[in-house]
Amino acid sequence: MEKNKISFTVIEVIMVITIIGILILFALPRMRVIYSIKLQGAIKKLVQDIKYTQTVAITTHTDYAISFNPSENSYQAYQVPDGNLLKDPHTHQPLVVDFDEISQYKGININSVDFGGTNILQFNWRGNPYDGNGNPLTREGRIILSYHDESFTIIISPQTGNIEIQ
Fold first, then answer.
1. Which residues does 17 contact at the CB level (< 8 Å), separation at least 6?
2. What are the two backbone dihedrals, phi and then psi, of residue 83, each rounded to the nearest 5 degrees?
3. d(Cα 43, Cα 94) in Å, to the nearest integer?
4. Which is it for strands 74-79 and 120-123: parallel, antiparallel or unpaired?
5. Tens-place pLDDT, residues 8-31
6. Which domains are seen in the chain, by residue range?
7. DSSP character at residue 33
8. What angle do CA 123, 130, 99 make, to 5 degrees?
9. Region 151-163 average pLDDT
């Protein structure tokens, strides 16, 4: 009798392990979807902040910039040249975003930023994009964000400041 009981327990363990394995196989693809949603949320936030900064530059006839710090996964928007931080339209706090400090974006990396060799994107009062040295962009500006093994590139066109996501 006890042999059957032990065999039955071993069979139960094998069945449980099999069921857990099957559940994991179904859950893994969904984790990729969650990763993608998290990254897309961060991209949406960044694109909105870039467009907002450009809009404020146009409406106030004042130059504004966004400075990126890839090593700290952060960025901030400010008025050029005095450095007064732009206020976030939703929170009315300074527009400073640190992906490492915001729980919904934790783990998002700013892999690279290139605006004419600088980490700063400026907009003049007409909404035209400039690099951090105050020169008009002559080629596309790029920001690469990643989360786990997925990444997207945000491209800012030189003359218009239009944004494309790849």
1. none
2. 85, 5
3. 19
4. unpaired
5. 677 777 888 888 877 776 666 655
6. 40-165 (3.55.40.10)
7. H
8. 70
9. 93
**Residues 108, 35 contacting (CB under 8 angstroms):** no
Strand partners of residue 153: 144
Q: What is the DSSP string of 107-139?
A: T-EEEEEEBTTBSEEEE-TT--EE-TTSPBPSS
Please determine, for residue 6, whether its predicted confidence score (pLDDT) is greater than 60: no
In this prediction, residue 7 carries a pLDDT of 60
What's the whole-number mean pLDDT along residues 143-157? 93
- Helix (H), strand (E) at residue 76: strand 74-79
Length of the chain: 166
What is the longest distance spanned by two Cα atoms in the chain?
A: 89
pLDDT, tens digit, for every residue of 44-88?
999 999 999 999 999 999 999 999 999 999 999 999 989 999 999
148 burial level (CB within 10 Å; 0-12, 13-18, 19+)? middle
